[in-house]
Design a protein that fits this description.
The complex is a heterotrimer of chains A (290), B (169) and C (779).
Chain A: E1 10-12, H1 17-26, E2 31-34, H2 40-45, E3 53-56, E4 66-69, E5 73-77, H3 82-87, H4 89-94, H5 96-104, H6 108-113, H7 116-122, H8 128-136, E6 138-144, E7 147-152, H9 153-156, E8 157-159, E9 162-163, E10 170-177, E11 183-190, E12 200-209, E13 212-221, E14 228-229, H10 231-237, E15 240-241, H11 244-257, H12 268-289
Parallel strand pairs in A: 1-3, 2-3
Antiparallel strand pairs in A: 4-5, 5-10, 6-7, 6-10, 8-9, 11-12, 12-13, 13-14, 13-15
Helix pairs in contact in A: 5-8, 10-11, 11-12
Chain B: E1 3-10, E2 13-20, H1 25-32, E3 51-54, E4 58-61, E5 74-76, H2 89-96, H3 106-119, H4 125-132, H5 143-158
Parallel strand pairs in B: 1-5
Antiparallel strand pairs in B: 1-2, 3-4, 3-5
Helix pairs in contact in B: 2-5
Chain C: H1 16-20, E1 36-42, E2 49-55, H2 57-60, E3 65-69, H3 84-87, H4 90-96, E4 108-109, E5 115-121, H5 124-132, E6 135-140, H6 147-150, E7 166-169, E8 180-182, H7 185-190, E9 194-202, E10 214-219, E11 225-229, H8 234-244, E12 252-256, H9 272-281, E13 287-290, H10 293-299, E14 306-314, E15 320-332, H11 340-350, E16 357-366, H12 380-398, H13 402-409, H14 429-440, H15 442-448, E17 456-466, E18 479-485, E19 491-495, H16 504-516, E20 523-526, H17 543-570, E21 577-580, E22 583-586, E23 593-595, H18 596-604, E24 623-628, E25 637-647, E26 653-663, H19 670-689, E27 719-725, H20 746-759, H21 770-778
Parallel strand pairs in C: 1-13, 11-12, 15-16, 19-20, 26-27
Antiparallel strand pairs in C: 1-5, 2-4, 2-6, 3-5, 7-16, 8-16, 9-14, 10-11, 10-13, 14-15, 17-25, 18-19, 18-24, 21-22, 22-23, 25-26
Helix pairs in contact in C: 11-12, 12-20, 16-17, 19-20
Chain lengths: 290, 169, 779
């Protein structure tokens, strides 16, 4: 049963990343990291999270950088809020899929509080930013006792709610792959009402040469235990000219590739059927804007 | 640590007190400071009844913010919208447009409106509606709330007080 | 008479300023000295179980815990949290079969969230920690989630007084054949050229008032039980608590706090019994109980879900020769409103059209869901969904315009109303239909959307309704009002009617100001349950109609007294006196006059001259009083038009526009009336598109939060045009009719019919989700 009161915990307030790592090592598996709090605190109220320690990133200098460098890509610090994406001109310009995901993400209040990294770490199949990031291609920078390592976003989510991050590691940065003038991307989602968790979301990144797609990345959420890459469907697009006929094939392939389930927000049957429709629409949207 | 001495700046006034670290900003406002204008409606960041402004501009859910994390920020509640007894244009617009029924969502709605207009002084209807997402009202169907936000934006524009006036953030 | 009148003006709500500044006090905002915190420990993991053992020992030992209370530590009296027993005579109550079947704390769990025990502690945090330490051992029982399940012969019996788990059916003594209606349905149905038959499924919809349930109670040193609550029925909860705790009513001080939305969920008691029981256990100390949003779903009532079977027989010319219907409702774990809703559901049905014959059967069955009860509209949205769709199906088959059919066959002035035998006193439905059709562009759009083939298809639909203004004659209708004249001529209006946010206090004050010809700001409304007399409560769309009637009568009583006194003082016949600008003036000689203020002042400050024994005026402070029982229920009608766009690839429905035309009689406060219709539309569209409380097979609620139970948001709501049709009712005070309960009714049927128009498919199950739309399109 949920509560109006948060469970008791000890608050850790390290001042730098080294101290974070030390504390994470010291209290292995007993620490929840607090940045935005919009998932963590809800989970605490409903008794899903009861770690004895909560480690706040508030006192740490840095981790709040949001920088785009041409030729390298976008770097998103662990403390960057979703709302910040909407205020950064380079996000809208170079990463329409991420911008559109952020625009539709939760509510204005939650966008002001929730971090982009938190959405990725939550490892929910419904995460809107996660879906866009998977399509765009990215690396998660993890820092642990042995230093930093980079994990490709394609390998980051292990299963529902579980990531490659080890208990003694802090996810410090997201690095989104760079885009070029021939890149286009877009994000769409289906919800019960406008403000809602997605019942299905999809993002694409296409490298285009005129009407021909040279390379494609398709990410779809709520159709498997984590956000999914639809690699078989991507292959249909690679090297192909975008046409109504091709999009019909792509839609059919997507329906074959997804593995949705029934839940409170929708049914497996519905998700399977609309997966192709939404994919077709998001490709049209991406191409139209490129 | 289990408790912490904090200083909360609410509506321009500093309050120094000790809180358990698991206490939310909402509880600190309501139970410690007895500023009950900010409401509990769901505890999951969905209803917006607990909306307050951080640093004069950003709306946040005080039910999902630890009190200790709000230290050093300027917090504005609806209690900080009136200045020397004079209502803020947003409050006047809500009253006169019939945007207040049961009133339970109203403090959060007004703070959300302040945030919408602080970031975008002349929002379109679509921008208003999207901006109001995250604040649930079960009485009005949002019709008169949308009208009130529009009217407030005109009033504030006319008064050339684009900055959220009256607020001592 | 006086220059300024208030009736008909969109006066801002009296409490809007308090609410917009955050100063209105809701129960949760109370902080009393020495206040303790109560926590109700509920069953989380079972929907049907016996408590084998309850171990409170560890919880009791948590430092800061003052007391723990199990089922045996509180009164053993059973109660019914509903208030229907107070609204009907004892005899009728027996016929209806209402029972008391709830315990404060129980050892027999009938639904998830049933209250097991209570903890009283020095802080909310401590109470919460102790609650985690309560140990309960259960024996699980089979779970029944629908009326079909629980009515099976082998099902466990919930209550020995209700065999077959049938909590209610229309009683034979009142309704021969357990049916409501008229004529020989079987014989008339046989004459039909075409028959349309369907079973509709209605969802369990939640009120979702924004204020979560909160209470403070204190058993004080004078032996009074004080309870601060936002109930919509203070004068019914007061005697209910008195009875439950064996106290005279004078020792129950019920304080009405600001109501953060009601919509029926606060029609009666919710957790007042648990809170007061805890307060009784710690005399002298206030106890505050605040529920979570989750508890709201688990512990308070919803709209009745169920199966609505309907069969309509028509002639080729559209004549509705017969209608046969049966609503089989799930009333949930306890009786509460099991008799009320299944009856009224049928009354809105019989009240609507001139059927040759009609037979309605209404039943309610116990299930292991949270109790169903009152929700704004009280059975009418359910009827609207079924009836308005079956009518459209017939119109389509007969190629008759749905608006024209309704204009021809709806009941009107002089026809039997929703209560057979009480005729409709007025009906402005034709004007509602005409103006609504024009506003939405009915004829053009109906034709334009006839044969669409694209991905996105549009449709327009219509729905009509009838409702009531107060529940007379089925239920007690009584409101008292006292108008106390202060010595300066200002007024205290004492009345027990609740203001749930709809603005009823504002409207009552507007009425009083006009009745007394004085400014509103010199009238104070006192809503004190000790000081004010009886009022049955805020339900059945009655407050303006019945409360307003009481205010007018009490004001007339004041005026009578003022004229009597002026007559004595001026030496003028009473018949020759009239009110003019707060003065009593002789018609025959305008120089003969006395101000209201002077009469009131000299009545209070009435001095005797020691020299001659004379006094300055007539002694005595003036108070007007009325104990008002309305003679009718002046039912309102309404028409709604909806335009929708359906995405045939995703099944998504977007409501583009609603036009709501309402037969208001006369609008005291047009802005408030609009607010009722617009807010009601939000609830109706939720029921038809997204809202439904769901349970898993174990009877555990799957969506008890705003994350999982979705209402339409500001972006989803359509453009709403409201049309207030003002044809004053000849019986009603000032010609007024009700609006509040009408709000969530009509957009249900109009939207369903619009979807049907767009797709050519009728949906029998609400809400009409994209999943259901796409499934139907595939078939």
């Amino acid at each position: 049963m949920s509560s109006r009161v948060l469970p008791q915990f000890d608050l850790l307030e390290p001042r730098n990343v080294a101290d974070v790592i030390a504390l994470l090592s010291q209290h292995e598996n007993q620490v929840s990291v607090l940045a935005g709090g919009t998932d963590l605190l809800v989970w605490a109220y409903i008794e899903k999270n009861k770690t004895p320690y909560v480690l706040s990133l508030s006192a740490i200098e840095g981790l709040d950088h949001l920088d785009y460098v041409a030729g390298e890509g976008l770097r998103i610090g662990a403390k960057v809020k979703v709302a910040q994406l909407l205020k950064h001109p380079d996000v809208a310009k170079h990463y329409p899929a991420l911008y559109q995901a952020a625009e539709n993400f939760a509510t204005p209040q939650i966008r002001n509080m929730a971090t982009v990294m938190g959405n990725v770490l939550r490892a929910s199949p419904a995460g809107d930013c996660s879906c866009a990031i998977l399509a765009l291609g990215a690396k998660v920078v993890l820092q642990g006792p042995a230093g930093q390592r980079l994990v490709d976003i394609d390998d980051f989510w292990v299963s529902y709610g579980v990531t490659e991050r080890q208990p003694d590691e802090l996810a410090v940065e997201l690095r989104i792959d760079d885009t070029s003038s021939s890149t286009c991307s877009a994000f769409q989602r289906l919800t019960r009402v406008h403000e809602d968790l997605s019942k299905l979301n999809v993002a694409v990144r296409l490298e285009m040469d005129q009407d021909t797609c040279k390379q494609a990345r398709i990410a779809m959420g709520c159709v498997g235990p984590t956000p999914l890459r639809l690699k078989k469907t991507e292959r249909l697009l690679t090297g192909a000219k975008i046409s109504a006929e091709l999009l019909q094939q792509v839609a059919a392939a997507a329906r074959e590739e997804v593995t949705p389930i029934d839940d409170q927000r929708s049914t497996a049957e519905y998700r399977r059927q609309v997966s192709g429709v939404i994919l077709k629409r998001v490709i049209e949207q991406a191409v139209a804007k490129s | 640590m289990k408790t912490k001495m904090i200083t909360l700046c609410v509506n321009g006034k500093d309050h120094r007190f000790e809180v358990p670290v698991n206490r939310t900003l909402l509880q600190a406002l309501r139970d410690d400071l007895k500023l009950t204008e900010t409401k509990y409606g769901c505890g999951t960041g969905e209803c917006g009844g607990c909306t307050v402004l951080m640093d004069g501009k950003d709306s946040v859910c005080s039910c999902l913010t630890l009190a200790v994390e709000a230290e050093g920020r300027h917090i504005t509640t609806v209690g900080g919208m009136t200045h020397e007894g004079e209502l803020h244009p947003i409050q006047i617009a809500f009253i006169e447009e019939g945007a207040v029924q049961c009133g339970y969502c109203t403090p959060g709605m007004i703070m959300k409106t302040a945030s919408i207009l602080a970031n975008n002084p002349n929002p379109t209807e679509e921008e208003i509606r999207k901006g109001l997402d995250g604040n649930i009202c079960r009485c009005t169907g949002y019709e008169k709330i949308v009208q009130a936000v529009r009217r407030a934006s005109v009033m504030m524009d006319t008064a050339q007080t684009r900055k959220v006036g009256g607020m001592r953030a | 008479m006086n220059a300024k009148t208030y009736v008909g003006q969109s006066v801002p709500k009296l409490d809007a300023r308090e609410k917009a500044t955050g100063q209105a006090i809701y129960a949760a905002d109370l902080n009393l000295p020495g206040m303790l915190y109560g926590k109700i420990v509920r069953c989380r993991d079972f929907a049907h179980a016996k408590v084998l053992k309850l171990d409170l020992s560890e919880a009791a030992q948590v430092p800061g815990v003052v007391k723990v209370l199990g089922p045996k530590d509180v009164t053993q009296k059973r109660y019914n949290s509903g208030v229907l027993d107070l609204m009907v005579s004892e005899g009728l109550g027996e016929v209806l079969g209402d029972i008391e079947d709830q315990h404060i704390f129980t050892d027999y769990v009938r639904h998830q969230g049933d209250a097991i025990c209570g903890i009283i502690a020095e802080s909310e945090e401590i109470a919460e920690i102790a609650a985690q330490k309560v140990k309960v051992f259960y024996e699980a029982l089979p779970v029944y989630l629908t009326a079909e399940d629980s009515s099976r012969p082998d099902a466990i019996q919930f209550d020995e007084r209700k065999p077959g788990n049938r909590a209610f059916q229309l009683p034979e003594q009142m309704f021969p054949g357990n049916a409501y209606g008229w004529g020989d349905v079987d014989a008339e149905m046989a004459k039909a050229d075409m028959v349309f038959e369907e079973t509709f499924t209605l969802p369990k919809v939640k009120q979702c008032q924004m204020e979560t349930h909160s209470y403070v109670a204190m058993y004080d040193q004078t032996g009074r039980l004080n309870c601060w609550t936002s109930t919509q029925m203070p004068k019914c909860v007061q005697p209910k608590l008195a009875r439950l705790f064996d106290l005279p009513i004078s020792r129950v001080n019920l304080v009405s706090t600001t109501i953060g939305g009601g919509f029926g969920v606060r029609l009666g008691m919710i957790c007042e019994p648990e809170t007061c029981a805890m307060a009784m256990a710690v005399p002298g100390r206030p106890v505050k109980v605040q529920l979570t949003r989750e508890e709201d779903w688990l512990a308070s009532e919803s709209r009745h879900p169920g199966k609505y079977w309907i069969k309509l027989g028509v002639k080729m010319d559209g004549t509705p020769v017969a209608l046969d219907a049966r609503f089989m409702a799930s009333t949930g774990a306890y009786f509460t409103h099991a008799s009320g809703v299944p009856f009224t559901t049928g009354s809105w049905l019989t009240g609507m059209y001139k059927y040759g014959a009609v037979r309605y059967k209404g039943e309610a069955y116990f299930t292991n869901q949270a109790p169903s009860g009152a929700f704004r509209g009280y059975g009418n949205p359910q009827t609207n969904f079924a009836l308005e769709q079956i009518v459209d199906r017939a119109c389509n088959a007969l190629n008759i315009d749905p608006v024209e059919w309704r204009k021809k066959w709806h009941k009107g002035t002089g026809d039997d109303g929703w209560c057979i035998g009480v005729p409709f006193s007025s009906c402005a439905l034709d004007e509602c239909l005409d103006r609504g059709a024009k506003a939405i562009g009915w004829n053009e759009k109906r034709a334009k959307y006839a044969n669409q083939t694209g991905v996105k298809r549009r449709g327009v639909g219509v729905s009509v309704m009838n409702h009531t203004s107060g529940a007379m004659p089925m239920l007690l209708e009584h409101t008292t009002c006292t108008v106390k004249m202060n010595e300066d001529g200002s007024v205290v209006l004492m009345i027990s009617c609740s203001d749930m946010g709809q603005g009823s206090h504002t409207v009552l004050k507007q009425i009083a100001a006009d009745a007394l010809g004085m400014p509103m700001d010199e009238i104070h409304i006192l809503n004190n349950m000790d000081a004010s007399g009886f009022d049955i409560g805020s339900h059945a769309s009655r407050t303006t109609y019945v409360g307003g009637g009481a205010v007018i009568k009490a004001c007339e009583d004041v005026k009578r007294q003022l004229i009597e006194r002026a007559s004595i003082r001026l030496g003028v016949d009473k018949e020759d006196l009239e009110f003019k600008e707060r003065q009593v003036v002789a018609r025959s000689d305008a120089s003969k006059k006395l101000s209201v203020k002077e009469i009131c002042h000299s009545g209070v400050y009435n001095f005797t001259n020691p020299a001659n024994g004379e006094t300055n005026g007539v002694p005595g402070q003036i108070q007007g009083y009325a104990s008002h029982f309305p003679s009718h229920n002046s039912p309102p009608f309404g028409a709604c038009f909806a335009e929708v766009e359906v995405d045939t690839e995703t099944g998504e429905v977007k409501v583009l526009e609603l036009v709501i035309a309402h037969d208001i009689g006369r609008a005291i406060n047009p802005m408030a009336v609009e607010g009722q219709l617009e807010g009601g539309a939000h609830q109706a569209l939720g029921m038809i598109l997204t809202e439904e409380t769901c349970y898993n097979d174990a009877g555990l609620c799957r969506n008890n939060s705003f994350t999982d139970y979705k209402m339409l948001g500001p972006v989803d709501m359509p453009r709403i045009t409201t049309i207030l049709v003002e044809q004053p009712d000849p019986i009603a005070p000032m010609g007024i009719k009700s609006v509040g309960e009408a709000g969530p009714v009509n957009p249900v049927g109009a939207t369903a019919n619009a979807i049907s128009h767009a797709l050519g498919i009728m949906f029998t199950e609400a809400p009409i989700t994209p999943e259901r739309v796409l499934k139907a399109l595939n078939q």
